[in-house]
Amino acid sequence: MNNYEHYVFIDFEFTMPEYKGYPKGFFPEIIEVGLVAVRNQEIQDRFSSYVKPTSFPKLTDRCKSFLHIQQKHVDDGITFEQLIQQLGQYESSTIITWGNMDMKVLKQNCQKQGLKFPLKGKEVDLSMEYKRFFGDQNQTGLWKAVQEYGKEGTGKHHCALDDAMTTFNIFKLVEQDKRYLQKPEPTTIGDRVDFSKLLNKFAL
């Protein structure tokens, strides 16, 4: 982890259609955000909130059951515009997510509401980094990945802030492994031989 770089770990939860199919014009809307801002390997800020959906404001039974988010939660949440204002604080940061859906849905939601995408920094899909690093054929789920490290996820899966924290924890583990596997600099002959001992031997 570069000390000078500011990382923001983001996780969103989205609306879901019922199993029977997508209603006409349906698209996933962000209904929960979890964000962890990190600098110099230290957490600087956390943010968590429910977000009101506008195009399909009524949550489906499937969505409520799968995410454990109730209608009252989103009804009392911030607006999508307020979410964009919050994210704008981190416009130049490196954004790290697990999978590419979070940024795809954010961009689509911005487009649907006629709002400018708030983030300008580099975007990193940590699940792809993890896949490449370990040579996996398939992408690994967030909590399966952390369990493969012999750890447990933070809090509850599909709670946006807990998933953002878990993503940060995996990032630290992967970065640690990368440093461990980097080839050390070749040693010089001076490193291999203690010349002071050698000279003392010949001086006798």
From TrEMBL:
The keyword Phosphoprotein does not apply. Keywords: Exonuclease, Hydrolase, Nuclease. GO terms for molecular function: 3'-5'-RNA exonuclease activity; nucleic acid binding. Residues 6-180 form the Exonuclease domain. It comes from the Bacteria. Pfam families: RNase_T. Coiled coil: none annotated. NCBIfam families: PRK07748.1. This is Sporulation inhibitor KapD. It comes from Priestia veravalensis.
